[in-house]
Amino acid sequence: MATITLETVRKSYGKTEVIHGVDLDVADGELIVIVGPSGCGKSTLLRMVAGLETVTSGRISIDGRVVNDLEPRERDIAMVFQNYALYPHMSVRANLAYGLKIAKLPKDEIARRVAKASALLQIDPYLDRKPRQLSGGQRQRVAMGRAIVREPAAFLFDEPLSNLDAKLRVQMRMEIKTLQRELGTTSLYVTHDQVEAMTMADRVVVMNGGIAEQIGAPLDLYRNPASTFVAGFIGSPPMNFIDPALLGGDDGGRVGTMGIRPEDLVLTTPENGTLEGTVAFCEALGADTLVHLRLKDDSLLILRTDGDPLEPGAAFGATFAASALMSFDPSGKRI
Amino acid sequence: MQKRVTFHNRWLPYLLVAPQVLVTLVFFFWPAGQAVWQSMYLPDPFGLSSEFVGAENFTYLFEDPYYRASFITTAVFSTLVTLASMSVALLLAVMADRVIKGSGAYRTLLIWPYAVAPAVAGVLWLFMFNPSIGVATYWLKGLGYDWNHVLNGTEAMGLVVAASAWKQVSYNFLFFLAGLQAIPKSVIEAAAIDGASFARRFWTIVFPLLSPTTFFLLVVNVVYAFFETFAVIHTITGGGPQQDTNILVYKVFKDGFVGQDLGSSAAQSVILLFLVGILTVIQFRFIERRVHY
Amino acid sequence: MVEKRGAGIWLTHLTLIVGIMLLCFPIWFAFVASTVTQADIIRPPLPLVPGPHLIENYTRALTTGVNAPVATMLFNSMVMALGITFGKLTISILSAFAIVYFRFPGRMLCFWLIFLTLMLPVEVRIVPTYEVAAQLNLLNSYPGLILPLIASATATFLFRQLFLTIPDEIVEAARIDGAGPMRFFRDILVPMSRTNIAALFVILFIFSWNQYLWPLLITTEPEMNTIVMGIKQMFPSGDDWADWPVIMATAMLAMLPPVAVVIFMQRLFVKGLIESEK
Predict the structure, then answer these.
(1) pLDDT tens track for A130-171
(2) Is residue C161 helix, strand or coil?
(3) The pLDDT of residue B263
(4) Where are the domains of chain C?
(5) How many structural domains is chain B composed of?
(6) Ranges of H-type helices in A127-261
(7) Which of C167, C169, C183 sits opposite A102 (nearest CB)?
């Protein structure tokens, strides 16, 4: 049970700065997902919290205690790795117990905690197997178990689901979320998958190029993105960005680009549309259909409709409520 | 080259490398330095003092017909050992690669002589070809050939080559077999469907694809013939008759240890050091290529 | 696989069998010679089947030998071979651990020092190495037989290579679990390397057992001879007849341990051999 605080945390490798000052306050019991494209610095940030990377400047505190100069083991944290990092020569039981054994916990206490974690994760039947005899999902559970038995102040997750297939990923992300809520352990979760961020997080940190672009609750980010980057990264299919000139409202270059979500657009006849174009292609997903309209300036506009696919080449218009339109300045900031 | 994450400890890494580095310095670099040092000095006949002579030991060596002869002997010896052991091994490996039933048994029977020490190999061959009691000598006499490697230099060379090559066949066989089994079977099948006969398939497909292994073994066998055959020479001929099997490594030992000619022996060591250096560089350049192959 | 039919397959088997016979021939003769009497040997030809004196010859070799009982030499060989093998494995795995898992000033220097020993085989520095050993009072001693041979660039590289293939996350997980460097080494690195250690053990044991030149230089007392170098010492220097049955029994005994290792640990042996030459 702990809070985690990051104060203008920076990281440089030699002369190259990769994290340009990140501030973050994680409340007790909160699940924060750090999301961003590869190379944005999200893993580095997590590894700094873990103590696997040194902090170049700034301060990281766990539960009010500055941990900058502490070894990982002194930080009271547990980590789940992308490739699980289970010790291949040890049984599942030994993997779970290893950290506790090093911490010199009494034998019966170790046994109690291992039993509790394995019951919670339903890995009882595999306790005496080696990691290589387990499936991907089972290994994932063992990796979780290794974190749980420590009863740490915080969990750190480094893309824990990216080695699993799509179906298992959906199941595991719900399991992790439920488990985290049950245990109430403060957690930092790094992923490149915005769906994981949206579905799991209490709050999301969107990172880009070494800075935290926006921090907020998932739906806040979706409804009120602070920049074109966040607007484009959160949501699938992504937000449409339209040249203001196409909407007729050029106000001296103050607005760089306009954004609108695909589901906020309505198809209509060409003459009734604010925007007009021809159908480039359609993706029928079953419940709904994505229509790609080619606009006059040759850019593509995506609409989410519930109709049948349309014939390519047909001319259509698109309308929307004025409130759904977002404006961004030329640097990408929300106006 | 190194891990992303490392442990931090001021003195522990030094403690960990200390034993290896200590042994290396005391038993490798110190003596090697001594060899270089001694190679430039000439001790007096009583070994009481020595005089700096610069490169004189080296010029003297290269003018010495025995030393030049030893170079030729070494070249002939290593060429013959390498060719003999590699060609026999390749033949056996190709055959073993062809059989499906019993290939495991053949492999076991063909690789265990690897474990026989060169010195023991020398004694075994010495026994077979002993001029008075040897079985092979007896059979050769039956064919009308009078074998006596103690007197005949060519026969002595033949015997040390045979013993050295015999011991090395297993090693080469193992690597050739591994190399052959690494060639994709589909390539050979495609050639067979293209109508190539076995011999043709071998020379146009298999042998070129095997070239990394072959080249690797070439270097290893030359190194073996240069250094590890010391024991074979020592047990069978002692470098004789006269100087006929006195390879470079044996001569260093004989001049320095038996003849007590320290300056010359040290100079010979330095020359050998250069040769090993060259061989090692070739070996490593080649390993780089093998990685990219 | 393009399967052979008819005559071709018989020719293949024939070649292999002839090859095996040629390879085994010298050893078979040595075995036969170790089971007959001196009188049988000096009247060629030697029979092709073993004689009845096996136990007698081997007992004589083991208990009396020529200069020293062969049992003593076998013991010396065993001490030397195990000493060198364990020594090499220990110091190589430790230095590879330091080089891969620590960053410290002089790391590259250590790496190159170890690497360069590849270029300095005993054979090219015979006399000075002998002198160093003599100055350190190592002549005719087990440390003298073992210490100068335990540096190993090959083994160090092998372990380094192996450690580099172990995922970084394993170290990180261990650090988060609270393991310090030596704990990680003992609990995780060594157990994870055990098959490679075993394979290397097999190769190094054979290599060490078969050492010839160094024992020849450093042991002058017959009591300290190893069996491999001791065989040569059993031949008389003059015109006397060599005691062939005893010598051949010794030769058989000298090859027994390494050959047994190859046959019974063939899988590890092949793995070790092929990996140590990469």
Answers:
(1) 999 999 889 999 999 999 998 999 999 999 998 888 888 898
(2) helix
(3) 81
(4) 57-276
(5) 1
(6) 136-148, 166-183, 194-200, 218-223, 228-233
(7) C183
User: A4-233 domain in CATH 3.40.50.300?
Assistant: yes
Q: Which two tokens mark B249?
A: 């490594």
Q: Which residues of B touch C124 (CB under 8 A)?
A: 32, 35, 227, 249, 252, 269, 272-273, 276
Residue B7 forms part of a structural domain: no
For domain A240-328, give its CATH number from 3.30.420.140, 2.40.50.140, 3.30.420.40, 2.170.30.10.
Answer: 2.40.50.140
Distance CA A84, CA C170 (A): 9
Range of the domain at B206: 66-292
Query: Which A residues, 142 through 171, put their C-beta within 8 Å of a C-beta on chain C?
Result: 146, 150
* Residue A269 phi, psi dihedral angles, 5° rounding: -75, 155
Helix (H) or strand (E) holding A277: strand A275-284
**Residue B117 three-state SS:** coil
* Nearest CB partner across the interface for B133, out of C42, C172, C181: C42
Name the closest residue on chain B to residue C152, using Cα atoms.
B20
pLDDT in tens, C210-238: 999 999 989 988 889 999 998 888 888 76
Contact yes or no for B173/B110 (Cβ under 8 A): yes
The pLDDT tens digits of the residues spanning C119-128 come to 777 777 778 8
SS3 (DSSP) at A36: coil
B241 prior amide bond cis, ω within 30 = yes
C-alpha B263, offset from chain centre: 26
Burial class (CB in 10 A: 0-12, 13-18, 19+), B65: exposed
The per-residue DSSP string of C52-117 comes to S-HHHHHHHHHHT-SSS-HHHHHHHHHHHHHHHHHHHHHHHHHHHHHHHHB--TTHHHHHHHHHHG
Q: Using CA atoms, how far apart are residues A50 and A156, in angstroms rounded to an integer? A: 7
Domain assignment of residue B98, yes or no: yes
Task: Please write down the long-range contacts of A181-184, taking CB distance under 8 Å and 24 or more positions apart.
Answer: A181/A31, A183/A148, A184/A1, A184/A29
| B127 neighbourhood in chain C, CB within 8 Å | 26, 29-30, 33, 244, 247-248
**Residue B16 in domain:** no
Burial of A41 (0-12, 13-18, 19+ CB in 10 A): buried
Tokens of A27: 């409340």
DSSP code of A321? -
Contact C212, B117 (CB under 8 A): yes
Spatial contact of C31 and C244, defined as CB atoms under 8 Å apart:
no
Q: What is the distance between the alpha carbons of residues A140 and A34, in angstroms, rounded to a whole number?
A: 20
DSSP assignment letter at C43 = S
User: What's the rounded Cα separation, in Å, for the pair B282 and B290?
Assistant: 12
**Contact yes or no for C176 and A87 at CB 8 A:** no
Beta bridge partners of A188: A32, A156
> Residue A192 in contact with residue A37, Cβ under 8 Å?
yes
Residues B5-17 pLDDT 10s: 778 888 999 999 9
Predicted ipTM of the assembly: 0.88
Q: What residues of chain C lie within 8 A of the CB of A77, using their CB? A: 176
| CB-CB under 8 Å, B12 with C124 | no
| Model pLDDT, residue A1 | 65
At residue C181, φ and ψ (nearest 5 deg) are: -60, -45
Residues of A in contact with C188 (CB under 8 A): 87, 89
> What is the C-alpha to C-alpha distance for residues A292 and A318, in angstroms, rounded to an integer?
11
- Domain borders along chain A are 4-233, 240-328
Q: What is the dihedral of CA A148, A153, A156, A157, to 10 degrees?
A: 40
Supply the CATH classification number for the domain C57-276. 1.10.3720.10
* Best CA proximity match to C54, nearest among C68, C40, C43, C69: C40
